[in-house]
Design goal:
The protein is 0% helix and 65% strand. By secondary structure, it is an all-beta fold.
Length: 257
């Protein structure tokens, strides 16, 4: 199946939208998605929420959308817990336990810039336990901030993927692990390139504990300031990784825990 979707400037636009769709299987498709938000509407090629045992496999996603500012809100007020509500994202999975994202080609580019600190998340998996992200090709190109894969949830596996994230203005990130989260990142090729700042692998306990094993990954990138891995989890182990970086201020592995 070939699915072509072009969004309007002030309307939420999705190629695939599903809620409470347990056992959903999306396989063998080509999805061509163009978002055109002006910052007031959400653009996602896919948004799946509150759905267990979802399989997204063997698809081609050609995604073009604006790089947009990200609204933040303190929830609840006065708590110090800040929650983002991204405008522009490629594939989004929220509260999708036992997700399988495998053998997809996910190509993301930007067509416009909206607001300050403009950002695109190519793949966003949040609040989803037991997620498996395996054997995908993720190629993300953005402007000020571009993220290849951002994930939260317990017992995830990220393996055998090719993830490339490239900014033409400021910042690029390959994999971003945000707490609460635990899992393993293994046997991936992870690249982040940007003019000023790049982090191929990054983790932070922003809203909960993080425990991750990083094993046998090939990590590379180029930027004026580049960290191959900046790890902020409570417990993170790093074994058998190859890290090759080029920059003016260069650190292979940094820990903030």
């Amino acid at each position: 199946t070939v699915l072509n979707v072009v969004g309007e400037t002030d309307k939420d636009a999705y190629a695939i939208l599903a809620n409470k769709a347990d056992n959903l299987n999306i396989s063998g498709n080509t999805v061509n998605y163009e978002g055109n938000t002006n910052g007031t509407a959400v653009n996602n090629a896919i948004l799946i929420s509150e759905s267990k045992d979802v399989v997204v496999s063997d698809n081609v996603f050609n995604i073009t959308l604006p790089s947009s500012y990200v609204p933040w809100a303190e929830v609840p007020a006065g708590s110090g817990n800040w929650v983002s509500s991204p405008i522009s994202e490629g594939l989004v999975f929220d509260d999708c336990d036992n997700l399988e994202l495998s053998e997809n080609d996910i190509i993301v580019n930007y067509n416009n810039v909206v607001g300050s600190y403009d950002t695109i998340y190519a793949v966003d998996i949040k609040n989803s336990d037991n997620a498996k992200v395996e054997s995908n090709n993720i190629d993300a190109k953005g402007h000020t901030y571009i993220y290849g894969l951002i994930i939260s949830g317990e017992n995830f596996t990220i393996s055998d993927n090719n993830i490339t994230s490239e900014s033409d203005s400021y910042y690029a990130n390959g994999i971003d692990v945000e707490g609460p989260a635990s899992g393993i990142i293994k046997d991936n090729n992870i690249v982040a390139n940007a003019p000023l700042s790049a982090y191929p692998v990054y983790s932070a306990m922003s809203n909960g504990n993080v425990e991750v094993e990083h094993k046998n990954n090939n990590i590379s990138g180029k930027a004026a300031v580049i960290y191959g891995m900046e790890l902020g989890g409570a417990k993170e182990t790093v074994t058998g990784n190859n890290i090759n970086l080029e920059g003016n201020y260069t650190i292979g592995i940094a820990s903030r825990a």
